[in-house]
């Protein structure tokens, strides 16, 4: 059928490579999923209770501004609730930022192995994505600044980064911002902030409060509420106003803010999740380092394991699958063909993965 006889997407839409999620085990199998960076301890019991209570009100439209969640976030993080926008996952907010601040002829800059959603939302807005090479799988501030042109309108920065787990210190993020024109928006995507243990890291709230061209984006997905789809953003008044003008009037479902508010306030559960992750992230890193494998130091709830060759990475993936562990192949989405990303799971899962990989026949 001719394209003239059917609706045609806007130019550039069909050039976008779709997002590739982590694989899951086949239905009916007992495979352990370590491919999506989900919470190994489930959700906060308080969040579950709030979700169940809210389920009794499914016939009612949600309050449009997610006021209950914004107030809880403001209380926990010391932020004015009026400076917060909530979304259907942080992806929703990233899309809205791209729609608002990018258009035909504009450019957005990101590091080479940054989150694979950034090219999608940039190109969907009609803009061009500019990818900048990293130094040893870590964002290079000098290279990012060198890539800025008169057309640059947005810098996407995942900190810590997915899929590498690397991060930039507060000083480096500030140096990046200091080199930008005031009309360029710096988006600090803190999806994994809850898991960071590095002392020189900052979520960037001070920078947001000090400047007019910085926003911080967060999510509850890594804290046990991935299915609820809750994201939040903190930004200057003028950016919050612009985003609120185009977001859906009920872009967050009714149970999500209730669960999110309870989860944000459940500090004991969140600390337990962070401690579990830090212990088993460091343990697994130590176990796998060597044996023709290299683990990139991570501040997230996963590690990226680099093998000597793409063939070894493929063999490792298949060997893990055969043993019942589903990890993330990052070649298709990120071009790191010799790497696998492994989410931090239960103690049993981590010991199992370590045993499989350290005893794997890696001869070719």
Automatic annotation (TrEMBL):
Domain (Aminotransferase class I/classII large) ranges: 30-356
Keywords assigned: Amino-acid biosynthesis, Aminotransferase, Histidine biosynthesis, Pyridoxal phosphate, Transferase
Gene symbol of the encoding locus: hisC
Pathway field: Amino-acid biosynthesis; L-histidine biosynthesis; L-histidine from 5-phospho-alpha-D-ribose 1-diphosphate: step 7/9
CDD domains documented for this protein: AAT_like
Gene Ontology MF term list: histidinol-phosphate transaminase activity; pyridoxal phosphate binding
Enzyme class: transferase
Recorded family membership: Belongs to the class-II pyridoxal-phosphate-dependent aminotransferase family. Histidinol-phosphate aminotransferase subfamily.
EC number assigned by the record: 2.6.1.9
Any one Gene Ontology BP term: L-histidine biosynthetic process
One Pfam short name: Aminotran_1_2
Residue(s) carrying N6-(pyridoxal phosphate)lysine: 222
Keyword presence, 4Fe-4S: no
Lineage, highest ranks first: Bacteria, Pseudomonadati, Pseudomonadota, Alphaproteobacteria, Hyphomicrobiales
Stored InterPro entries: Aminotransferase_I/II_large, HisP_aminotrans, HistidinolP_aminotransfase, PyrdxlP-dep_Trfase, PyrdxlP-dep_Trfase_major, PyrdxlP-dep_Trfase_small
HAMAP family per UniProt: HisC_aminotrans_2 (MF_01023)
Gene3D superfamilies hit by this protein: Aspartate Aminotransferase, domain 1 (3.90.1150.10), Type I PLP-dependent aspartate aminotransferase-like (Major domain) (3.40.640.10)
Cofactors that this protein relies on: pyridoxal 5'-phosphate
UniProt subunit comment: Homodimer.
Reaction catalyzed: L-histidinol phosphate + 2-oxoglutarate = 3-(imidazol-4-yl)-2-oxopropyl phosphate + L-glutamate
Protein name: Histidinol-phosphate aminotransferase
């Amino acid at each position: 059928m001719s394209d003239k006889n059917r609706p045609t997407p806007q130019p550039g839409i069909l050039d976008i490579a779709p997002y590739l999620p982590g694989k899951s085990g086949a239905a009916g199998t007992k495979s352990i999923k370590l491919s999506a960076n989900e919470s190994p301890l489930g959700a906060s019991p308080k969040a579950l209770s709030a979700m169940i209570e809210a389920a009794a009100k499914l016939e009612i439209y949600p309050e449009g501004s997610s006021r209950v969640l914004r107030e809880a976030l403001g209380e926990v993080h010391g932020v004015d609730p009026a400076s917060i926008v909530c979304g259907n996952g942080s992806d929703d907010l990233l899309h809205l930022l791209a729609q608002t601040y990018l258009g035909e002829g504009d450019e957005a800059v990101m590091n080479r192995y940054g989150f694979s959603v950034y090219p999608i939302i940039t190109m969907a807005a009609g803009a061009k994505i500019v990818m900048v090479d990293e130094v040893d799988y870590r964002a290079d501030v000098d290279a990012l600044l060198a890539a800025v042109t008169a057309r640059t309108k947005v810098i996407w920065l995942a900190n810590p980064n997915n899929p590498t787990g690397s991060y930039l210190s507060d000083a480096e993020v500030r140096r990046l911002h200091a080199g930008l024109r005031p009309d360029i928006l710096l988006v600090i995507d803190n999806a994994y902030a809850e898991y960071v243990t590095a002392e020189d890291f900052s979520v960037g709230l001070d920078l947001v409060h000090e400047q007019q061209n910085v926003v911080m984006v967060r999510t509850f997905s890594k804290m046990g509420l991935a299915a609820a789809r809750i994201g939040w953003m903190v930004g200057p008044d003028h950016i919050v106003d612009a985003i609120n003008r185009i977001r859906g009037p009920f872009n967050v479902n009714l149970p999500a803010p209730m669960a999110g508010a309870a989860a944000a306030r459940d500090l004991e559960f969140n600390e337990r999740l962070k401690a579990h992750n830090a212990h088993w992230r460091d343990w697994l890193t130590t176990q796998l380092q060597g044996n023709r494998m290299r683990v990139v130091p991570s501040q997230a709830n996963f590690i990226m394991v680099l093998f000597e060759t793409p063939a070894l990475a493929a063999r490792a993936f298949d060997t893990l699958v055969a043993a019942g562990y589903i990890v993330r192949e990052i070649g298709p989405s990120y071009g790191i063909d010799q790497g696998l990303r492994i989410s931090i799971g239960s103690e049993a899962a981590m010991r199992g993965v370590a045993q499989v990989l350290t005893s794997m026949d890696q001869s070719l």
